[in-house]
Specification:
Length: 318
C-alpha cells in the first residue's frame, strides 16, 4: 500500500476526457466517534448531490427553498470555492458554471455537511478537468478550506478513515470494520456552533486524560476491526471534548445514557454536535430511547437510521 502524501499540485496523466456536465454524490460523515478527536471520521449514507454544468455565463447556483438560508448562492459557496482550488492547482481558467445543490445531510449538525460540499467541489472540478489529480491530492487541497481532514477524508474515500496532519499535510488510512454496525442519529433542531464548541475546550489536559483517550481511541479501532461491538461501550468514552461541550449541550450525557439503555453498543457526540450518534444492532429501540429522552428534556429533534457508506465521493457524467 502506498502511504505517500502527494503534493497537491502533483498532476497525474489525464486518462479521462474532460466533462462539461457531471453530478457528484458525497456522503455525510461523523467525526471523533468519542475519543478520536480530530483524527477519526466515518462516512454515512446521508448524501449531498450536486449537478454541475459548464456554461458560457456567470456563476449560477440553485438550491431547494428549505436550504436557501444556509447555503451561499454566490462565489462564497463552499462547492464553488473548492472547485476554484482545483482549477487553480491545474492552471486552468475557471469556467462559467451552473450548480444545482441538494443536501440530504442535516446542515450545521456535526454531520460533515461542510466537508461534503468541499469534497463535491473538488471531485467535480477534477472531473471537468479530466481527472488530473488523485484523491490524496484533492484531500490536501481541501484541508485549506476545511482546516482538518477528519470529515473530509471519509467524504472523499468512504468508510472509517484515520487521519493526521504531518508537516502540514494530511495522511489518511482506512480502518477495517469487520461487521458494520447499524447507526442511529438523534439530530436536535438546534444548531451547535463549531466555533463555540471549540472555544470551550481547554488548552491543556492532564496526562491521565491524554492516556485515557489514547487507550480508548486504540480500543475503538481494534473493536471495529474485530467486530466486537460489546467493547464499544467503553471504547467510545472520551475525556478530551465531550465533558466540556456538555456545558453548551447539557442534554448530551442524558442522550448517550438513553442510547445505551436502549441497547446501543456505544454512543457519542457527532463531530462538534449537536447530533448524537449510536452504534447498534437493532436501531428501533435505540431511536425510541433517544427520542423519549429528548422529549423529557424538552429538546426537539428527530431520529435517523443510517448505515456506513464505503464508496465516498462519486462523480457520474450527466
Amino acid at each position: 500500500m502506498n502511504y505517500a502524501m502527494p503534493h497537491p499540485e502533483a498532476i497525474l496523466p489525464s486518462v479521462v476526457p474532460p466533462l462539461h456536465k457531471a453530478t457528484a454524490r458525497v456522503p455525510g460523515s461523523s467525526a471523533n466517534l468519542g475519543p478520536g478527536f480530530d483524527c477519526l471520521g466515518l462516512a454515512l449514507d446521508l448524501y449531498l448531490r450536486v449537478e454541475c454544468q459548464v456554461t458560457g455565463g456567470k456563476l449560477a447556483i440553485e438550491v431547494p427553498d428549505a436550504q436557501r438560508a444556509e447555503i451561499a448562492l454566490n462565489a462564497e459557496n463552499l462547492v464553488y470555492r473548492a472547485m476554484r482550488l482545483v482549477f487553480e492547482a491545474v492552471h486552468a481558467s475557471v469556467p462559467g458554471l451552473h450548480l444545482s445543490i441538494d443536501s440530504g445531510i442535516p446542515l450545521s449538525r456535526g454531520l460533515g455537511s461542510s466537508a461534503a460540499a468541499i469534497a463535491a467541489g473538488l471531485v467535480l472540478a477534477n472531473a471537468l478537468a479530466g481527472d488530473p489529480l488523485d484523491r490524496h491530492a484533492l484531500l490536501n487541497l481541501g484541508i485549506g478550506l476545511e482546516g482538518h481532514p477528519d470529515n473530509l477524508a471519509p467524504a472523499l474515500f468512504g468508510g472509517l478513515q484515520v487521519s493526521s496532519l504531518v508537516d502540514g499535510r494530511a495522511l489518511t488510512l482506512p480502518a477495517e470494520i469487520k461487521h458494520p454496525p447499524r447507526i442511529v442519529l438523534f439530530v436536535p433542531d438546534f444548531v451547535m456552533s463549531t466555533a463555540e464548541a471549540r472555544r470551550v475546550l481547554p488548552e491543556r489536559v492532564s496526562r491521565a486524560d491524554a492516556v485515557f483517550n489514547t487507550g480508548r481511541a486504540a480500543l475503538l479501532i481494534a473493536a471495529l476491526a474485530a467486530g466486537d461491538l460489546a467493547a464499544l461501550r467503553w471504547a467510545m468514552e472520551d475525556r478530551l471534548h465531550q465533558p466540556y461541550r456538555g456545558a453548551i449541550f447539557p442534554a448530551l450525557p442524558r442522550l448517550i445514557e438513553a442510547a445505551l439503555h436502549g441497547g446501543a453498543a456505544g454512543a457519542a457526540l457527532s463531530g462538534a454536535g449537536s447530533t448524537v450518534l449510536a452504534f447498534c444492532e437493532r436501531p428501533e429501540p435505540v431511536a425510541a430511547a433517544m427520542a423519549s429522552a429528548a422529549e423529557s428534556l424538552g429538546l426537539p429533534g428527530r431520529s435517523i437510521e443510517a448505515r456506513i457508506d464505503f464508496d465516498g465521493a462519486r462523480v457520474v457524467p450527466s
